[in-house]
Amino acid sequence: MAEKMKLPTADLEVFFALDSAEISPEATGLLDMLGEAMADQRLADQKFVIAGHTDASGPADYNIALSHRRAEAVRQYVIDKHGIDPANLIARGFGKSRLKNPAQPYAAENRRVQIINWTSMTAEPPQR
């Protein structure tokens, strides 16, 4: 929907190990930049969807749950470290349904989070 509606979005290169929702030490710098941007007064009242994704390995139900845990880990990190209002951050898991690299469904770049500025939408945030 974000693509279709041309909403501002960013794929973050937050690397997750296979079968993990733990934020790597390499990702914290990027998440700190994200948190600082979200804390800026110009974005403080904006609503964001944090969309978690997986690669194609594993059963669909498991991947939905894993991708949600990844999105929730990023959400909680920016809340805890940067004081972002939790009501402005919605975590959703999409599993393997939206591969970044469909030609290589097991590639690491498919295990990611995507940040979508949802403020301009009047509809409910996307469901899993």
Core attributes:
single chain; 128 residues; alpha+beta; 60s Ribosomal Protein L30, Chain: A; 4-stranded mixed sheet; 2 helices; 27% helix; globular
Question: What does this 3D model show about the protein?
Answer:
This protein is α+β, with helices and mostly antiparallel strands and 128 residues long. The chain has a single domain (9-117), classed as 60s Ribosomal Protein L30, Chain: A. The protein is 27% helix and 15% strand. It contains two helices and four strands. Strand 2, helix 2 and strand 3 (89-93) form a beta-alpha-beta unit. The chain is globular.
- Uncertain segments: none
Quick one: CATH class?
Alpha Beta
Distance between the termini: 12 Å
Percent helix, as a range, is 25-40%
Count of spatially separate domains: 1
Helix-and-strand structural type: alpha+beta
